[in-house]
Amino acid sequence: MGIFSRRQTALSEPNPAAGTGASVTETTLDPALRALTGRWTIDRPHSRIGFSVRHAMVTTVRGAFTEYDSTLYFDGARPSESRADLVIQVASVDTGVEQRDAHIIGRDFFDARRYPEMTFRSTSTLHENGETFRMTGDLTIRDVTRPIDLQLDYLGSVLDPFGYERAGFDGTTTIDRTEWGLVYNQRLKTGGTMVSEKVRLQFDISAIRSTS
Q: Is the distance from CB of 50 to CB of 66 less than 8 angstroms?
């Protein structure tokens, strides 16, 4: 996940397919980051899994999910071995308006009674530049699974005053909700729609190293 830092270093070594002296690329990692390898969990009181969507063409509604479980494994030596699994209870959505929340978890949108969970399971992680990474994974909503890409910005790690080792990152992506069957909408007399099809997902994460 976005907890690694790596740089590409060109090395020359024999390559049976191309002859001696062929240039190959090897990934080298900051040795200090190898110590971060292990299992982590999201600290919910200090994290936010949220979304934002344009409403009535002129304003933005923001919300978050307050109940979810996470399984995170970071590999500081082999980033490709890292994994992230997130299971979100969609009925925990909170936009600050009770009536709107009831509509969102109803049949027009999440249909929480039939599909109580939304999940994300990572499939790969790539370093892009600096402290920016890209995680690809499968997002499942209403039993529809489609791949998404998250841009992850690593924020650093620290030992907090309570003795917990923390690592932080921000993740963002934009999806078309209709691709997951969330097609409800209303047309406006002046043109456009009541709810945008584009939804921005936001992951503001503080992860704590697991002791078990």
A: no
Name the band, by pLDDT with cuts 50, 70 and 90, for residue 58.
confident
Using DSSP's 3-state secondary structure scheme, residue 64 falls into strand
DSSP classification of residue 182: -
Tell me the torsion sign for CA atoms 122, 171, 37, 85.
Answer: negative
> How far from the centroid of its chain's Cα atoms is residue 182's Cα?
20
pLDDT of residue 31: 61
- How buried is residue 170: exposed, middle or buried, by Cβ count under 10 Å (0-12/13-18/19+)? middle
Rounded to an integer, what distance in angstroms lies between the CA atom of residue 103 and that of residue 51? Answer: 16
For the entire predicted model, the pTM comes to 0.81
Name residue, tokens 């190293």: 209
